[in-house]
Amino acid sequence: MTPQSDEDEVWRQIVASFNDTAERDSADQPWPDSENLPVEPVRRVVKPPESAEAEDGPEDDGDEGRAPASDDDEGHFQPPPPPPLPKLDLPTKLAWVALFGGPAYLLVAAMAGWRMEGWALFTAVAAFIGGFVALVVRMGDGPPNDSGWDDGAVL
């Protein structure tokens, strides 16, 4: 037999046993028992001792804004509200309107079947390009003004 015929025979065996199920050995799972999850998750609730609550007296003033915590909510992180968005100046607002307004007009006009004049097409495309250029130019490539004297690692 040639090496090619041996290889062909191996391939025939692989193809013939393609749909056969694998034989399971005595273990039903391929991982150790210590990695199995319990049927019901274990809940660990840590409550402060009752004597500490009695010593503190009435609720602190800082807790007035919070809703009373129930046993189900304990241990869940609730992030603080996000800071407000920065205020934009008029040129930046106009650049954003132009950036999205030009293509939006073209899309609405095309979907509505309006006949678009040449000057309207030019204005919409020019608004898009102008808004994009204005936003890129206003980005700046330097560090922020409040970064201080140390600008970090400079290579």
From TrEMBL:
The keyword Transmembrane applies. Keywords: Membrane, Transmembrane, Transmembrane helix. Residues 52-63 have a biased composition (Acidic residues). This is Uncharacterized protein. The chain crosses the membrane at residues 94-113, 119-137. Residues 15-88 are annotated as: Disordered.
